[in-house]
Design a protein that fits this description.
Helix content: 25-40%
Strand content: 15-25%
CATH class of the largest domain: Alpha Beta
Strand order of the largest sheet: 9-8-7-10-13-15-14
Structural class: alpha/beta
Number of domains: 2
CATH architecture of the largest domain: 3-Layer(aba) Sandwich
Radius of gyration: 21 Å
Length: 321
Amino acid sequence: MLANRLRRNRKHLGKWARREGVTCWRLYDRDIPEVAITVDDYEGALVVADVRRARHDEVLDDGWLDEVAAAVKDVTGAAEVHHKTRRRMADRQATGAQYQKLGQGGAWREVGEGGRRFLVNLSDYLDTGLFLDHRRTRALVAAEAAGKRVLNLFAYTGSFTVYAATAGAVSTLTVDMSNTYLDWAAENFRRNRMDPATNALERADVVAWLAAYRGPKFDVVVVDPPTFSNSKKMQGSFDVLRDHVALLTGVARVTTPGAGVIWFSTNHRGFRLDERALPAFARAERTHDTVPPDFGYSKPHRAWRLTAQQPAAVSRPRPGG
Protein backbone atom coordinates (compact mmCIF):
# COMPACT_ATOMS: atom_id res chain seq x y z
CA MET A 1 0.00 0.00 0.00
CA LEU A 2 2.70 2.49 1.01
CA ALA A 3 5.02 1.29 -1.72
CA ASN A 4 2.40 1.83 -4.42
CA ARG A 5 1.62 5.33 -3.17
CA LEU A 6 5.29 6.28 -3.04
CA ARG A 7 5.82 5.09 -6.61
CA ARG A 8 2.74 6.96 -7.79
CA ASN A 9 3.78 10.18 -6.05
CA ARG A 10 7.32 9.95 -7.42
CA LYS A 11 5.88 9.67 -10.88
CA HIS A 12 3.19 12.37 -10.77
CA LEU A 13 4.57 14.85 -8.24
CA GLY A 14 8.03 14.23 -9.64
CA LYS A 15 6.88 15.53 -13.03
CA TRP A 16 5.48 18.66 -11.37
CA ALA A 17 8.70 19.20 -9.40
CA ARG A 18 10.90 18.89 -12.50
CA ARG A 19 8.63 21.20 -14.49
CA GLU A 20 8.70 23.83 -11.73
CA GLY A 21 12.40 23.42 -10.99
CA VAL A 22 11.63 22.30 -7.41
CA THR A 23 14.37 20.11 -5.93
CA CYS A 24 13.18 19.95 -2.29
CA TRP A 25 9.63 18.70 -1.96
CA ARG A 26 7.25 16.46 -0.04
CA LEU A 27 7.04 13.00 -1.54
CA TYR A 28 4.43 11.63 0.86
CA ASP A 29 2.08 13.70 3.03
CA ARG A 30 0.11 11.31 5.29
CA ASP A 31 -1.70 10.18 2.16
CA ILE A 32 -2.85 6.92 3.77
CA PRO A 33 -4.36 7.42 7.25
CA GLU A 34 -3.01 4.08 8.48
CA VAL A 35 0.55 5.11 7.52
CA ALA A 36 0.88 8.46 9.27
CA ILE A 37 4.25 9.64 8.10
CA THR A 38 5.66 12.42 5.95
CA VAL A 39 8.55 11.95 3.53
CA ASP A 40 10.49 14.99 2.37
CA ASP A 41 13.04 14.85 -0.45
CA TYR A 42 16.02 17.22 -0.14
CA GLU A 43 17.73 16.74 -3.48
CA GLY A 44 17.85 12.98 -3.09
CA ALA A 45 18.22 12.74 0.69
CA LEU A 46 14.98 11.75 2.44
CA VAL A 47 13.57 12.74 5.84
CA VAL A 48 10.86 10.41 7.16
CA ALA A 49 8.80 11.74 10.08
CA ASP A 50 6.44 9.73 12.26
CA VAL A 51 3.36 11.91 12.85
CA ARG A 52 1.07 9.37 14.50
CA ARG A 53 -1.20 10.76 17.21
CA ALA A 54 -1.37 8.72 20.37
CA ARG A 55 -4.29 8.69 22.77
CA HIS A 56 -3.43 9.84 26.28
CA ASP A 57 -3.19 6.24 27.49
CA GLU A 58 -1.53 4.77 24.39
CA VAL A 59 2.16 3.89 23.97
CA LEU A 60 3.25 3.84 20.34
CA ASP A 61 5.78 1.32 19.06
CA ASP A 62 8.92 3.25 18.12
CA GLY A 63 10.21 0.26 16.16
CA TRP A 64 7.38 0.82 13.66
CA LEU A 65 9.15 3.89 12.28
CA ASP A 66 12.37 1.95 11.70
CA GLU A 67 10.44 -0.57 9.62
CA VAL A 68 8.61 2.13 7.66
CA ALA A 69 11.81 4.07 6.99
CA ALA A 70 13.47 0.89 5.72
CA ALA A 71 10.51 0.32 3.38
CA VAL A 72 10.75 3.90 2.10
CA LYS A 73 14.46 3.44 1.41
CA ASP A 74 13.82 0.17 -0.38
CA VAL A 75 11.12 1.63 -2.67
CA THR A 76 12.89 4.89 -3.48
CA GLY A 77 16.45 3.60 -3.65
CA ALA A 78 17.61 6.64 -1.69
CA ALA A 79 21.13 6.34 -0.34
CA GLU A 80 20.45 8.71 2.57
CA VAL A 81 17.33 8.39 4.73
CA HIS A 82 16.85 10.13 8.09
CA HIS A 83 13.89 9.51 10.35
CA LYS A 84 12.48 11.30 13.36
CA THR A 85 9.37 11.33 15.52
CA ARG A 86 7.00 14.26 15.81
CA ARG A 87 4.45 14.23 18.62
CA ARG A 88 1.78 16.80 19.30
CA MET A 89 2.68 18.76 22.40
CA ALA A 90 -0.78 19.92 23.41
CA ASP A 91 0.25 20.16 27.03
CA ARG A 92 3.20 22.53 26.50
CA GLN A 93 1.35 25.35 28.26
CA ALA A 94 0.86 23.17 31.33
CA THR A 95 4.23 21.40 31.39
CA GLY A 96 6.53 24.08 30.01
CA ALA A 97 7.96 21.50 27.61
CA GLN A 98 9.70 22.76 24.47
CA TYR A 99 10.95 20.99 21.37
CA GLN A 100 14.58 20.08 21.98
CA LYS A 101 17.52 19.30 19.74
CA LEU A 102 17.33 15.64 18.73
CA GLY A 103 20.99 14.75 18.32
CA GLN A 104 24.40 15.49 16.86
CA GLY A 105 24.18 13.58 13.59
CA GLY A 106 25.48 16.52 11.63
CA ALA A 107 23.63 15.78 8.39
CA TRP A 108 24.20 19.27 6.96
CA ARG A 109 23.86 19.96 3.26
CA GLU A 110 23.29 22.89 0.94
CA VAL A 111 20.17 22.83 -1.23
CA GLY A 112 18.62 25.14 -3.77
CA GLU A 113 15.20 26.76 -4.03
CA GLY A 114 14.07 29.48 -6.41
CA GLY A 115 17.63 30.26 -7.46
CA ARG A 116 18.73 30.71 -3.84
CA ARG A 117 20.94 28.50 -1.67
CA PHE A 118 20.04 27.27 1.81
CA LEU A 119 21.77 25.24 4.49
CA VAL A 120 19.62 22.45 5.93
CA ASN A 121 20.18 19.92 8.70
CA LEU A 122 18.36 16.66 8.09
CA SER A 123 19.16 14.86 11.34
CA ASP A 124 19.56 17.03 14.43
CA TYR A 125 16.32 19.01 14.73
CA LEU A 126 12.63 18.30 14.28
CA ASP A 127 12.64 20.86 11.45
CA THR A 128 15.38 21.03 8.85
CA GLY A 129 15.83 24.80 8.59
CA LEU A 130 13.67 25.24 5.48
CA PHE A 131 9.88 24.99 5.70
CA LEU A 132 8.95 23.47 2.34
CA ASP A 133 5.27 24.35 2.68
CA HIS A 134 6.16 28.07 2.51
CA ARG A 135 7.95 27.78 -0.83
CA ARG A 136 5.25 29.77 -2.62
CA THR A 137 4.84 32.26 0.23
CA ARG A 138 8.53 33.12 -0.03
CA ALA A 139 8.13 33.76 -3.75
CA LEU A 140 5.11 36.01 -3.14
CA VAL A 141 7.06 38.06 -0.61
CA ALA A 142 9.96 38.35 -3.04
CA ALA A 143 7.62 39.56 -5.78
CA GLU A 144 6.88 42.77 -3.83
CA ALA A 145 10.23 43.30 -2.08
CA ALA A 146 12.12 45.27 -4.75
CA GLY A 147 13.01 48.75 -3.51
CA LYS A 148 11.37 48.08 -0.13
CA ARG A 149 12.46 47.94 3.51
CA VAL A 150 11.62 44.41 4.68
CA LEU A 151 11.22 43.13 8.26
CA ASN A 152 11.20 39.40 9.04
CA LEU A 153 9.86 38.52 12.50
CA PHE A 154 10.17 35.10 14.19
CA ALA A 155 12.59 34.67 11.31
CA TYR A 156 13.96 31.18 12.07
CA THR A 157 16.83 30.63 9.59
CA GLY A 158 16.02 33.70 7.50
CA SER A 159 14.70 32.12 4.30
CA PHE A 160 12.10 34.86 3.76
CA THR A 161 14.87 37.43 4.17
CA VAL A 162 17.03 35.67 1.58
CA TYR A 163 14.18 35.79 -0.92
CA ALA A 164 13.48 39.47 -0.23
CA ALA A 165 17.10 40.62 -0.35
CA THR A 166 17.92 38.74 -3.54
CA ALA A 167 14.77 40.18 -5.14
CA GLY A 168 16.02 43.73 -4.65
CA ALA A 169 14.95 44.86 -1.18
CA VAL A 170 16.69 48.10 -0.19
CA SER A 171 17.33 46.72 3.28
CA THR A 172 16.19 43.89 5.54
CA LEU A 173 16.03 43.29 9.28
CA THR A 174 15.78 39.73 10.59
CA VAL A 175 14.61 39.26 14.19
CA ASP A 176 14.58 36.02 16.15
CA MET A 177 15.15 35.03 19.77
CA SER A 178 17.50 32.13 19.02
CA ASN A 179 21.24 32.62 18.58
CA THR A 180 21.38 29.21 16.90
CA TYR A 181 18.88 30.19 14.22
CA LEU A 182 20.40 33.65 13.71
CA ASP A 183 23.82 32.06 13.15
CA TRP A 184 22.14 29.72 10.69
CA ALA A 185 20.47 32.68 8.97
CA ALA A 186 23.84 34.46 8.73
CA GLU A 187 25.23 31.41 6.96
CA ASN A 188 22.31 31.47 4.52
CA PHE A 189 23.03 35.16 3.90
CA ARG A 190 26.67 34.40 3.11
CA ARG A 191 25.73 31.64 0.71
CA ASN A 192 23.55 34.13 -1.18
CA ARG A 193 26.17 36.92 -1.12
CA MET A 194 24.02 39.31 0.86
CA ASP A 195 25.64 42.51 2.12
CA PRO A 196 25.69 42.57 5.96
CA ALA A 197 25.56 46.38 5.86
CA THR A 198 22.01 46.32 4.47
CA ASN A 199 20.80 42.98 5.86
CA ALA A 200 20.89 43.17 9.65
CA LEU A 201 20.27 40.40 12.19
CA GLU A 202 18.94 41.06 15.68
CA ARG A 203 18.36 38.67 18.57
CA ALA A 204 15.27 39.71 20.50
CA ASP A 205 11.93 38.63 21.88
CA VAL A 206 9.74 39.83 19.01
CA VAL A 207 6.89 41.08 21.21
CA ALA A 208 9.25 43.12 23.40
CA TRP A 209 11.16 44.34 20.33
CA LEU A 210 7.97 45.64 18.69
CA ALA A 211 7.06 47.58 21.84
CA ALA A 212 10.50 49.19 22.02
CA TYR A 213 11.22 49.89 18.34
CA ARG A 214 11.37 53.57 17.36
CA GLY A 215 13.22 53.43 14.03
CA PRO A 216 12.14 53.85 10.40
CA LYS A 217 8.97 52.08 9.26
CA PHE A 218 9.00 48.94 7.11
CA ASP A 219 7.23 48.52 3.77
CA VAL A 220 6.90 44.71 3.90
CA VAL A 221 6.72 42.69 7.12
CA VAL A 222 6.73 38.88 7.37
CA VAL A 223 5.21 37.43 10.56
CA ASP A 224 5.24 33.64 11.00
CA PRO A 225 5.04 33.13 14.78
CA PRO A 226 5.17 29.82 16.65
CA THR A 227 1.92 28.30 17.83
CA PHE A 228 3.19 28.51 21.39
CA SER A 229 6.42 29.51 23.12
CA ASN A 230 7.49 29.85 26.74
CA SER A 231 11.20 30.24 26.20
CA LYS A 232 13.28 31.34 29.18
CA LYS A 233 14.57 34.17 26.96
CA MET A 234 11.19 35.89 26.90
CA GLN A 235 8.88 37.40 29.48
CA GLY A 236 5.84 35.21 30.01
CA SER A 237 4.63 33.05 27.13
CA PHE A 238 3.27 33.46 23.61
CA ASP A 239 0.13 31.77 22.33
CA VAL A 240 -0.88 32.61 18.77
CA LEU A 241 -4.60 32.19 19.47
CA ARG A 242 -4.48 34.38 22.55
CA ASP A 243 -1.92 36.94 21.44
CA HIS A 244 -2.20 37.48 17.67
CA VAL A 245 -4.34 40.63 17.95
CA ALA A 246 -1.76 42.33 20.18
CA LEU A 247 1.05 41.00 18.01
CA LEU A 248 -0.40 42.34 14.76
CA THR A 249 -1.22 45.66 16.42
CA GLY A 250 2.45 45.96 17.29
CA VAL A 251 3.45 45.00 13.75
CA ALA A 252 1.13 47.67 12.30
CA ARG A 253 2.88 50.30 14.39
CA VAL A 254 6.22 49.63 12.63
CA THR A 255 4.67 49.32 9.16
CA THR A 256 4.62 52.17 6.62
CA PRO A 257 1.30 54.03 7.09
CA GLY A 258 -1.06 53.82 4.14
CA ALA A 259 1.25 51.64 2.06
CA GLY A 260 2.70 48.81 4.16
CA VAL A 261 2.09 45.10 3.55
CA ILE A 262 2.04 42.40 6.23
CA TRP A 263 2.32 38.70 5.38
CA PHE A 264 1.00 36.76 8.38
CA SER A 265 0.89 32.97 8.64
CA THR A 266 0.38 30.28 11.25
CA ASN A 267 0.44 26.50 11.36
CA HIS A 268 -2.14 26.33 14.17
CA ARG A 269 -4.83 24.00 12.83
CA GLY A 270 -7.69 25.61 14.73
CA PHE A 271 -6.68 29.21 14.13
CA ARG A 272 -9.22 31.92 13.33
CA LEU A 273 -8.12 35.48 12.62
CA ASP A 274 -9.87 37.72 15.13
CA GLU A 275 -11.99 40.44 13.53
CA ARG A 276 -10.43 42.92 15.94
CA ALA A 277 -7.02 42.34 14.36
CA LEU A 278 -5.98 45.38 12.31
CA PRO A 279 -9.36 46.86 11.41
CA ALA A 280 -7.56 49.57 9.42
CA PHE A 281 -5.97 46.95 7.15
CA ALA A 282 -7.56 45.18 4.19
CA ARG A 283 -7.34 41.42 4.76
CA ALA A 284 -7.09 38.75 2.10
CA GLU A 285 -6.55 35.11 3.01
CA ARG A 286 -4.00 33.68 0.58
CA THR A 287 -3.73 30.11 1.86
CA HIS A 288 -4.93 28.70 -1.46
CA ASP A 289 -2.08 30.52 -3.21
CA THR A 290 0.63 29.67 -0.68
CA VAL A 291 0.14 25.93 -0.05
CA PRO A 292 1.94 23.98 -2.82
CA PRO A 293 0.59 20.82 -4.49
CA ASP A 294 3.02 18.49 -2.69
CA PHE A 295 1.16 19.31 0.55
CA GLY A 296 -2.20 18.22 -0.81
CA TYR A 297 -3.30 16.02 2.08
CA SER A 298 -2.30 18.12 5.08
CA LYS A 299 -3.14 21.66 6.06
CA PRO A 300 0.37 22.90 6.84
CA HIS A 301 -0.46 26.56 7.35
CA ARG A 302 -2.84 29.43 6.73
CA ALA A 303 -1.64 32.76 5.33
CA TRP A 304 -3.00 36.29 4.97
CA ARG A 305 -1.83 39.38 3.11
CA LEU A 306 -2.78 42.49 5.08
CA THR A 307 -2.49 45.90 3.43
CA ALA A 308 -2.57 49.29 5.13
CA GLN A 309 -5.38 51.50 3.89
CA GLN A 310 -5.00 55.14 2.94
CA PRO A 311 -6.77 57.40 5.48
CA ALA A 312 -10.17 58.51 4.25
CA ALA A 313 -10.15 62.01 2.82
CA VAL A 314 -11.91 64.56 4.98
CA SER A 315 -14.41 66.62 3.00
CA ARG A 316 -14.34 70.34 3.78
CA PRO A 317 -17.15 72.72 3.04
CA ARG A 318 -16.48 75.20 0.26
CA PRO A 319 -16.12 78.82 1.26
CA GLY A 320 -19.52 80.46 1.34
CA GLY A 321 -21.20 77.07 1.11
